[in-house]
Structure formats: C-alpha cells, structure tokens
Amino acid sequence: MKLGEMFNLSNKVAVVTGGSVGLGAQMAAGLAEAGANLVIAARKVDRCLNTCSELEKEYGVSTLPAACDVSKAEDCERLINEAVGRFGRIDILVNNAGATWGADSLDFPMDRWSRVIDINLTGLYRLSMLVARKMKEQGGGKIINITSLAGFMGTPPEIQNTVPYNASKGAVITLTKDLAVKWARYGINVNAIAPGYFPTDMSSGLLKKTIDLVMPRIPLNRLGSDHDLKGAVVFLSSAASDYITGQCLVVDGGMMAGG
Predict the structure, then answer these.
(1) For 173-228, what is each residue's pLDDT tens digit?
(2) Angle at 93 between CA 79 and CA 141, to 5 degrees
(3) CB-count burial class (<10 Å; 0-12, 13-18, 19+) for 181
(4) Are 143 and 95 in contact (CB under 8 A)?
(5) Mind listing the pLDDT tens digit for each residue in 8-63?
(6) Minimal CA–CA distance to 179: which of 99, 121, 118, 117?
(7) Which domains does the chain have, with CATH numbers?
(8) Distance of alpha carbon 149 from alpha carbon 166, whole angstroms
(9) HSE (CB half, 13 Å, CA atoms) of 89?
(10) Which of 81, 116, 169, 192 could join 151 in a cystine, given CB atoms 3.0 to 4.6 angstroms apart?
(11) Which residues face 68 on adjacent strands?
C-alpha cells in the first residue's frame, strides 16, 4: 500500500464525541480533510449543527449532528443507532467528550467527583463497548481515546486542582491498553492521545491564571495550536497505524520528556 493510500480515510465513518468545539472540532476537521464522513456528537446539538455545516462546506464530506451526553446510556444507544442508520457503519470512534471540576483535594464535593468520572470514564467505556459490537460485526475499526498528561502524573494544586479529572484520565490510559488486548481478536485497534496544554473552552480560563507556571515546563515553549492534533488523530484512524494498538501518543511539546 502506498503512503498516500495509508492515510486516506475516504468513505470511512468517524464518530467524534465532544466534537463541536475545541480539540474535538480540531480532530474532526483533520478527519474530514482526510476524507472521512463525520458524526459530530455533543450535549449542545446547536454547536454540532454549526460544526457540521463548516465541515461540509470546507471539505465536501457528509456529516450528521447528534445530541449526546455520554454519561447517559440512552444517549449512547441513540447516537449509535443514528450513525449506523445514516451511514451503515462506524469505522472510527474518537472518545473526546470530557468534563472537569476544580476544588481542594481535602474537601472535594463527591457529587462533582461522580459527574466527572461518569463522563470521562464510565461514559467513554459504555460508548466504546457499544461501538465495538458494531465494529466486530463489520470486521474491525479504530477507537481513539482522548486522555491527558494529567493521567500520567500528579499536578500541583496551583496548576491543576482537579483530582477526579486526573484520576479518570489515568484510568483511561489503562483501559485503552486492556481493551486493545481484549478486542484485537475482532480487528479493533484501541489507542489513546494525551494532549498537553491546549487553550480550549474548558481550559482557557485556567491557563490564563497558570500560564507563568506552565510555560517553563514545555520545552517547545508554546501551547498546543489549532492543528497540532490533526495528524495524530488521522494517523491512529488510518491504515498507517494498523499494527499499533494499546498505545498512548503524547502530544505535549516535550513536557513529559522534561519530567
């Protein structure tokens, strides 16, 4: 297979949760540019409509906006039914939907803990399991879980006082490895991407407060841009990564290397 063919996603169907804004929208654009048709899922469907319209206009792909809270089983089931009903299959799942909450680790509100875990871990697994059943029937597929640098290490409270977020992202890294082993027999590759510091709707407020603490820790001396995840998600979604599973690709400007 020639290199250009390896990265070509024409006629593939990708579902991106949390795909209407931020990192999800960036990755959806990368997949669309590579030729994939997109199902853009998020809790606010109006944002999904806007993103779908932009992708169709820019890249000429087919899209489907879908309302989905991944912490709700009925939403996950409806999302899959709508995607398969429209496109007939699901080739790629990008589990990007996420939530966070900041509070003192000695007095963290447990209802917020549960909400973050329900979305970032339980919801991610539930949707992956449901999609994997479809992928098994069709002979394979690619699942990409979006985790975080925070899943590898502790963070000073001055930078990131988000205990359930960090815990959930660490669990996603291990879950990625476990599902990769369990689902390899069905032709399903399961990998993860761990972004470093990217300014998004969810993180920009915190970054403004902590930028002087964060920047000295990034060897490339910049935050992630609006295109730095496109290549990573296309690679893990394409034939170029067919012999890679259970791995976590860190996209962090060298922060992990610096310790």
Answers:
(1) 999 999 999 999 999 999 999 999 998 776 667 777 788 888 999 999 999 999 99
(2) 115
(3) exposed
(4) yes
(5) 999 999 999 999 999 999 999 999 999 999 999 999 999 999 999 999 999 999 99
(6) 121
(7) 7-249 (3.40.50.720)
(8) 8
(9) 15
(10) 169
(11) none
Would you please indicate which residues are annotated as catalytic (active-site) residues? 165
- pLDDT tens across 76-104, in order? 999 999 999 999 999 999 999 999 999 99
Strand-pair category, 92-95 with 141-146: parallel
CA distances from 6 to 9, 13, 236, 239 (A): 8, 16, 11, 5
Tokens of 137: 């029937």
